Please model this.
Amino acid sequence: MCGIVAYIGPREAYPIVLKGLKRLEYRGYDSSGVALLNKGLKVYKKKGKVAELEDSLIGKDLHANTGMGHTRWATHGEPSDRNAHPHTSANGKLAMIHNGIIENYTQLKQELTKKGYKFHSDTDTEVLLNFIQDIQEHNECGLEEALRIALKRVVGAYVIILLDHDNPDTIIAARKGSPLVIGVGKGEHFLASDASPIIEYTKEVVYVNDYELAIIKADELVLKNLGNEKLTPFIQKLDLELAAIEKGGYDHFMLKEIFEQPATIFDCLRGRLDVAAGTITMAGVQKNIEKLTSANRIVMVACGTSWHAGLVAEYVFEELCRIPVEVEYASEFRYRNPVVREGDVIFAISQSGETADTIVAIEKAKENGAFIFGVVNVVGSSIARVSHAGAYTHAGPEIGVASTKAFTAQLAVLIMIALKIAWEKGTIDQQRYNHLLQELHEIPEKVAEALRHDDEIKRIANKYKDAQDFLYLGRGYNFPIALEGALKMKEISYIHAEGYPAAEMKHGPIALVDKDLPVVFVATKDSYHEKIISNIQEIKARKGMVLAVISEGDETITGMADDIMIVPEADELVAPLLSVIPMQLLSYHVGIAKNLDVDKPRNLAKSVTVE
Ligand code: M6R
Model:
């Protein structure tokens, strides 16, 4: 949440910062701003998307070799010019950008107000900045020392970057709970929330850890802890190509990412699934197989779409491994007093690996003795690091705010893990095991087949684009896909949509059904098929419109539904990997038909690094 970027070196900072902001815009786009340090400190900021900031800066003197920028997802204070970052300290000497939340900012603000400080924004960021200035003046110390003292009082999460008018050759940054990557170039450094603004300049990066400070000059990077001890920066090579973060000829990242799924699922299975040998090779699973097979219970902890992947996994793990599974919203789990014991295995599922609620939930579970297994997309992210072990989903950078390819990669990883545990535990027989390996192996090609129906789904989207509400229904493995379909529709098209277990419909939601309500049934051929056909009839009897996701060749539902979305037939355990594809395409095309910004839906941000 919020994207931050900075540069120090011999090049012009502004073009680098601006390009970086455009790459990071998926993290928040309420307002943006830049600070440039040349002979003086110049700060420009604007409500709205980065393009609006760019337009407003045409003709300005933007020359500087040190600069930073911020694209905001509002937490404290409405989206506006005055709440946009960077903020400037009361004495005008410091500028700061911040990603995160300072939880005790009210108390700090009161203290500063008593001392006569005036605030020009509603943000917690401005409070922290003036708190730093105040410490600097009171202790007559440098910025680095003042920052260290300030951070010891701060409660909350942050990545902050500071520019100091009096030290134009230095950038100071600090991290706790939000991501920060430093790109190490030749005589230059780049800072960003993720590697996307950095990769075209250098592949050598340092991931800053919590409670670390970075003091950066063009040709020097010093890392310290809050105790002022120097640390050795661990330089890693980025395994990321520029093409992976560009649209590659598609109109939108969301569409590109939907169409990438045959390849991303293939990448996820590659080197792990070997049908001929009948093996699944996953180092993180193999090393901890004892812990996983002897788990008393498994808890899937996640948010949003990743939570839906956890729900599918619940069905899969219980069926194959015969281990009780619970699925928890990280935000609820962390605040209750959940019973977590040794012998519990927590699966933390996250695309970004930076979701604040998921991080805190697993930290708490870890304290109580649970074993944490991360299923994460972003390599080196916080959840990957907090987990005892894990498996990456290898879906590549997901830039569209709506999660698509990360979800199917999560499903593929979770199904492989369940199969591996089941095989080791002896809860699956050879024939079913081999059959499911083969079914998984065929998924990339079947997803490609499902995508070939895109034009048909576009036609359906145009037919229903003006609906006020949608109801999504599914049973068994497809129930979480109904939830996911509804979530996609809400976030991309701003249409109210509800997902429900199809059989629960009779306990309330059926009252909503009339001729104007499109009801989407996720009804591929599975052991619930006859039951869901009855549910479809119940809707048709009440004049509801039925859109059904069906397996190829399903004449029965074809004859009943108003519109059908076809996917290839597959074993019900892997079918969610297919039935979600029309759900993604439907929401995308409705969003496009309504002329909405599908890559950056209103009010959302890609990575929710605040509670
Ligand atoms: O990065 P994570 O997987 O932890 O993110 C979880 C949710 O914030 C995310 O899935 C969100 O719901 C997406 N906008 C869904 O498309």
In short: The chain has three domains: 3-243, 248-441, 451-599. The pocket of 5-amino-5-deoxy-1-O-phosphono-D-mannitol is lined by residues 303-306, 350-352, 355, 358, 401-403, 491, 604, 607-608 (CB under 6 Å). Residues 94 and 465 are 49 Å apart (CA to CA). The longest helix spans residues 430-451.
